[in-house]
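Quick one: co-fold with phosphoenolpyruvate.
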Amino acid sequence: MRVPLIAGNWKMNTTVAEALDLVRAMKDELEKVTDVETAICPPFVSLAPVKELLAGSTIKLGAQNLFFAEKGAYTGEISSLMVADLCEYVIIGHSERRQYFNETGDIVNKKVTAALQAGLKPILCIGESLEENEAGSTEEVLAEQLSLSLAAVVDLNGLTVAYEPVWAIGTGKPATGEQANGTISFIRQSIAEAYGEKAAQEIRILYGGSVNSANAAEFMQQPEIDGALVGGASLKANEFISIVNQTSLIKHRK
Ligand code: PEP
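Sure, here it is.
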């Protein structure tokens, strides 16, 4: 059985002091849940102090990005080796990076490859825009994003995919549980075609896009959805704790 993962993408929010306060506000409650993996992805500058605060904790740490070169003259960038020193997870190919920082499929592929080589667990984000959705090309777009992102990747061990329809991110307009489940089922099928049924059954595929404590249950009840990548609601301790608790209850049918 796939262990559910709830990951919080804090985006460009929280100073170091605020990040530490937020971790303190959720740490004890999250640690009570042992059958759901939880990860938080604060901004780069908070990773080291948050790692220290999380020493010995079950809560995993993730970065929101990395650069694909190991080191060198890339002013302002952070490499996979630097991230791997501090984190277990790294978000790659988030739609905001694709949109605002011109990340192409090729760049995403290089980042996924660098992350895996460094022993990191990438959370690869894919998702269609509103126009693509309305044009009925969701599956075509996702299949292409998947194959470009994973070009020359032979082993998916450690990889998580997050299906994040761009129209649902930060809009307060999530997909329905059924829609997300159907699309994630398509993603799993595409992975089965490229990597075999075993890899497809083992890989975790999350839903992301306006998940909060009020709608989390709808997503977690779906068999194909293995957790969530949570943006806005991960900045509120009670919201994030509630999403994790609901996931535990539903996925393990207590
Ligand atoms: C995200 O940033 O990955 C995300 C899903 O954001 P939100 O939950 O705010 O829509």
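If it helps, The chain has a mean pLDDT of 97.
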